[in-house]
UniProtKB/TrEMBL annotation:
InterPro entries linked to this entry: Ribosomal_mS22
Keywords assigned: Ribonucleoprotein, Ribosomal protein
GO molecular function, one term: structural constituent of ribosome
Record's GO cellular component terms: mitochondrial small ribosomal subunit
Parts of the chain that traverse the membrane: none
Protein name in UniProt: Ribosomal protein S22, mitochondrial
Length: 338
């Protein structure tokens, strides 16, 4: 970082920033009264990015081209459709290209640990105590540096030099390097009293898309909003709303690492998504036990689900009844596989 870029980014704030548990008027308290989430560690984040886990999550997402490229009301004029005469080979080639684009379109947002060095004190210079009543923010405005790694430090009026907190980092980054769709002040929709009605209305994809745009994935506000939304989806069992979107994979990963398999497993059995149940159990055991499930015929797969219900689920009775009902409804297939 050059001295020129450091001091040219000098940013003086009258009355200073106040380090608070409210960021742009948003409380960190959660809408949900459920138990605390398991901490997202570096090891857990690395597991999310592992190829084997990503493969399972993509399969569970069920990427549908029609839904991935559906019209959405985002304030922009839709593209004018183009009609062409094409051969069968050209159509097949184009369909393959569209599938690749659809997979990119539903690329999952990352699950990463919270940034932990916010507000960390670097040094205290008592010789400049009382030099000014304002705080001074110094920012490295060198191009090519990500907002996450950009150096932002604050000199307090009492001589303390510290790293910027989340509020200060967001404000300074958005002032010098504004990102399209990201607001300087966090939208009020992320406040608990406004977030709850959106959740009750089932606007899950809108909330999650907006959170991805507004916050960095290592921001405490991002974790709060996204994980609260995941809990609400799990509570209402409206997983189909996020199917074939970029958010279903992280949701299922969240349920797996927090050991909340009951509702999704029930959803799979009630909607006859048997293979999804097997894939989710495989994901769950891979995350929590580091094991791969070896699957045999259909009877073996039923046994896997039955054992999983007995050992990992809390609503054993309801899930066992749902599994028995599914087996009875599919008794012909079971007999053929034996």
């Amino acid at each position: 970082m050059t001295s020129r870029s450091l001091f040219s980014s000098f940013y003086r704030l009258k009355n200073g920033y106040k380090h608070s548990k409210r960021i742009h008027g948003i409380n960190f308290s959660s809408v949900s009264n459920e138990s605390h989430d398991r901490e997202v560690t570096k090891e857990l984040s690395n597991m999310f990015f592992a190829d084997s886990v990503q493969e399972l999550l993509i399969k569970l997402t069920h990427v549908d081209v029609q839904k991935a490229f559906r019209k959405r009301f985002i304030g922009e004029d839709p593209d004018i459709p183009i009609y062409k005469f094409m051969t069968t080979a050209e159509v097949e080639k184009l369909q393959a290209e569209v599938k690749v684009k659809a997979n990119k379109k539903v690329q999952m947002p990352p699950i990463v640990p919270l940034q932990t060095d916010l507000g960390q004190v670097i040094n205290v210079d008592k010789d400049i105590i009382g030099f000014d009543n304002s705080k001074f923010v110094f920012t490295d405005i060198t191009f090519g540096i990500s907002d996450k790694s950009r150096i932002v430090v604050v000199r307090e009026s009492d001589g303390t030099l510290r790293k910027a907190n989340a509020d200060e980092r967001h404000t300074v980054n958005q002032i010098y390097f504004p990102q399209l769709g990201r607001e300087l002040k966090h939208p009020v929709m992320f406040q608990d009293e406004h977030l709850k009605p959106l959740l009750e209305n089932g606007d899950y994809e809108f909330i999650l898309d907006r959170a991805c745009c507004q916050f960095e994935p290592n921001d405490q506000n991002y974790h709060r909003v996204v994980f609260t939304t995941y809990k609400h989806v799990n509570k209402t069992k409206k997983y189909q709303v996020l199917e074939s979107t970029r958010h279903l994979g992280p949701l299922l990963f969240y349920l797996a690492f927090n050991k909340m398999p009951d509702n999704f497993l029930m959803y799979c059995l009630q909607t006859e998504r048997f293979q999804d149940a097997i894939l989710f159990i495989n994901l769950y055991t891979k995350i929590n036990q580091g094991l791969e499930i070896e699957l045999g015929d259909l009877k073996d797969q039923f046994k896997v689900i039955e054992d999983f219900i007995n050992t990992e689920c809390t609503e054993k009775g309801n899930l066992e009844e749902a599994l028995k009902y599914y087996i009875n409804m599919n008794s012909v297939e079971v007999s053929k596989s034996s």
